[in-house]
Hints:
Blueprint: H1 6-9, H2 35-59, H3 62-91
Amino acid sequence: MREHSPAFQDGALGNGGLGRTLESAHLRTEDDMGDRTQRIKGKGEEAKGRVKREAGIASGRPGTEARGAGEELKGKAKNATGKARSAVKKATR
């Protein structure tokens, strides 16, 4: 990976004059996700896990089945978190 010049890291050049450094650019994490986004991503992950689990069962591959089941549970948890965040948001309006 190429190193950036110190001027770029100080925010003087190359970032559209915003005065922000590369390090201070905000990257969204799952904690920053909105409740609806979290629910949608959870549903998607749950479906992907279900398909993977079913494929593992059909092909007789227990490792794929286990990974699919894990992804499905992760998706359900993410969806539940989104629902809880929605409920809190609704209750505090």
